[in-house]
Write a structure and sequence with these properties.
Elements (H helix, E strand, L loop, with lengths): L9 E6 L2 E6 L28 E6 L4 E6 L24
Antiparallel strand pairs: 1-2, 3-4
Length: about 90
């Protein structure tokens, strides 16, 4: 998003260790010094073999991570945890 506008047409360019977003020309008017602090981007990369779904909930304006066919993420499908184990999760 830029300001209060959703940018839905863009290309992702991988350049070494950098990720660049090239937005469609129709959104370029939003690129101004006034909007510099109002640019937000989220990148989600999924491996299809894991069958993890990331859906955007328009009602709550939140992202929901789910296991395929479920309304929640069942992490036990992807790793085994026993009492006392720790894991790090970034989102």
């Amino acid at each position: 998003t830029i300001g209060n506008y959703s940018v839905t047409e863009f290309d992702i360019i991988l350049d070494g260790t950098s990720i660049l977003l090239k937005i469609d020309e129709k959104y370029r008017y939003l690129l101004s010094p006034l909007n510099t602090d109002k640019i937000k981007a989220q990148l989600y990369e999924s491996l299809e073999s894991y069958n993890i779904v990331l859906e955007y909930n328009n009602t709550d304006n939140t992202w929901e991570l789910k296991s395929s066919g479920l309304d929640y993420l069942d992490i036990s499908q992807y790793l085994t945890l026993t009492e006392g184990d720790n894991f790090l999760f970034w989102f």
